[in-house]
Amino acid sequence: VYLFGLICLSSGSRLRQDDFPPRIIEHPSDLIVSKGEPATLNCKAEGKPVPTIEWYKGGERVETDKDDPRSHRMLLPTGSLFFLRIVHGRKSRPDEGVYVCV
């Protein structure tokens, strides 16, 4: 299974004097992972106020354990996307693809 990470920044709000715009400080990298194995796509950002990181795959927001406690994907406090196990099969949507960190 091939996971590919991209990054994208968005800063739609006005900044206060002591604020600074968001900036990605750790970029995701490509991964090749076996089915059933864990994996992490890293993404860290800095900014003030502290930026919120979201992940997208194929233009759709990635569902994590915050959306569904049964999900095998977790959004870590750092903004990284952790897969408890890589899914690739007929019964569920495969995890392989291009992931975008926003």
UniProtKB/TrEMBL annotation:
<dbReference type="InterPro" id="IPR036179">
    <property type="entry name" value="Ig-like_dom_sf"/>
</dbReference>
<dbReference type="GO" id="GO:0030424">
    <property type="term" value="C:axon"/>
</dbReference>
<feature type="domain" description="Ig-like">
    <location>
        <begin position="22"/>
        <end position="102"/>
    </location>
</feature>
<dbReference type="GO" id="GO:0007156">
    <property type="term" value="P:homophilic cell adhesion via plasma membrane adhesion molecules"/>
</dbReference>
<keyword id="KW-0393">Immunoglobulin domain</keyword>
<dbReference type="GO" id="GO:0005886">
    <property type="term" value="C:plasma membrane"/>
</dbReference>
<dbReference type="InterPro" id="IPR013783">
    <property type="entry name" value="Ig-like_fold"/>
</dbReference>
<dbReference type="GO" id="GO:0070593">
    <property type="term" value="P:dendrite self-avoidance"/>
</dbReference>
<dbReference type="GO" id="GO:0098632">
    <property type="term" value="F:cell-cell adhesion mediator activity"/>
</dbReference>
<dbReference type="Pfam" id="PF13927">
    <property type="entry name" value="Ig_3"/>
</dbReference>
<protein>
    <recommendedName>
        <fullName>Ig-like domain-containing protein</fullName>
    </recommendedName>
</protein>
<dbReference type="InterPro" id="IPR007110">
    <property type="entry name" value="Ig-like_dom"/>
</dbReference>
<dbReference type="GO" id="GO:0007411">
    <property type="term" value="P:axon guidance"/>
</dbReference>
